[in-house]
Design a protein that fits this description.
Length: 340
């Protein structure tokens, strides 16, 4: 066992004792955890460790970064624990090698009994990535080509993929994509807070994407103003301003089989520079009405008694502790409301 394994297993054991789960206990939960909740500090080395970590927190399942390690062992352990698996996958580019790699991931996902897949067309953020609308339009062509290659394979292997609203498309743009393909195997990984950064109303996003939901990134968020726009930050469930009860009810009514997957990212607040020229370059269809509504939302929802948390200057050990505490707090909050 190397030092990384030792530290990881020690942290997982500590978590297990703190939340009251024995090594073999059934979580008796409905909610899973997306491994993006641990990308700041504690990072398991493979899918098996990710499964064990989420089990120690009482999760019903895990959305894995990737299918790696001993896959038969992973499948057997998930079945033993009664946990479901979801898998994050990159969409293929137009090369045959990349398409074959995507197909191999689908084969592996079927082999381990994965419930569904999650993908993001753009791993970055639209307003940070594109300096002109022309650059964005070229990306749209590449993204469409990736989906053109992916959807027939999803249908061949009969496995559903949720395309995340990942600060790339406005909600109306994403709905148009899903309608265009009109495939039962392509839907949404509905992130509760991302599209605030694109000046979309958060409840409008839920209402429009709820019928397409395959899986979710469940979160709460807070906001603050800053000189070039506003700050957006994930917060433990119940500490932000999202109407989580209404959101969960809408999703369960429209897509009752979709999993609630916690995504609690512990990090410094994200800057949304919506008062700069560069921000607007890739948004020709947005206008002042969207900006005014969002800035009013920010003004109304800013908690001036409690600034958004910052962790960047903290020691690594403190970041790990905060990350663990935030996830545990979210799981406890969800359980009290019978979401988990």
């Amino acid at each position: 066992m190397d030092r990384r394994d030792f530290l990881y297993l020690g942290a997982a054991t500590l978590l297990s004792s703190q939340v009251g789960w024995s090594a073999e206990a059934s979580p008796n939960s409905k909610m899973g955890i997306a491994m993006t909740s641990f990308m700041t500090a504690l990072q398991p080395k493979d899918a098996y460790q990710s499964l064990e970590l989420c089990h120690s927190l009482g999760a019903a399942g895990v959305q894995l970064f990737a299918l790696n390690g001993d896959l038969p062992k992973l499948k057997a352990r998930a079945e033993e624990l009664g946990m479901f698996l979801e898998v994050m996958v990159p969409l293929p580019n137009d090369s045959q090698q990349d398409i074959r790699a995507f197909e191999k991931t689908l084969q592996d996902a079927k082999a381990v009994g994965a419930a569904c897949l999650r993908a993001a067309s753009l791993p970055t953020r639209r307003y940070e990535t594109f300096a002109t609308f022309g650059e964005y339009a070229e990306w749209v062509k590449r993204s469409d080509a990736a989906l053109d290659a992916a959807v027939p394979l999803l249908e061949k292997y009969k496995i559903r993929l949720g395309l995340e609203n990942h600060k790339d498309r406005t909600v109306d743009e994403l709905v148009a994509v899903l309608k265009r393909y009109s495939s039962q195997y392509l839907g949404s990984c509905l992130d509760f807070g991302n599209n605030i950064a694109l000046l979309d109303d958060p409840l409008d996003v839920i209402q429009k994407l709820a019928p397409y939901v395959v899986t979710t990134h469940m979160k709460d968020v807070g906001v603050e103003s800053y000189g070039e726009g506003f700050l957006l930050s994930e917060l433990p469930l119940g500490e932000g301003f999202l109407d989580l009860s209404s959101i969960v009810s809408l999703i369960r009514a429209a897509s009752p089989n979709a999993h609630l997957m916690l995504e609690m990212i512990t990090r410094d607040p994200l800057k949304v520079p919506c008062l700069t020229d560069k921000y607007w370059a890739a948004f020709p269809e947005r206008n002042g009405l969207y900006l005014a509504k969002t800035l009013r939302l920010v003004a109304e929802k800013t908690d001036r008694s409690k600034p958004l948390p910052r962790i960047g200057q903290l020691p690594k050990e403190e970041q790990v502790r905060m990350e663990q505490d935030n996830v545990k707090a979210c799981m406890a909050y969800a359980k009290r409301r019978h979401w988990a």
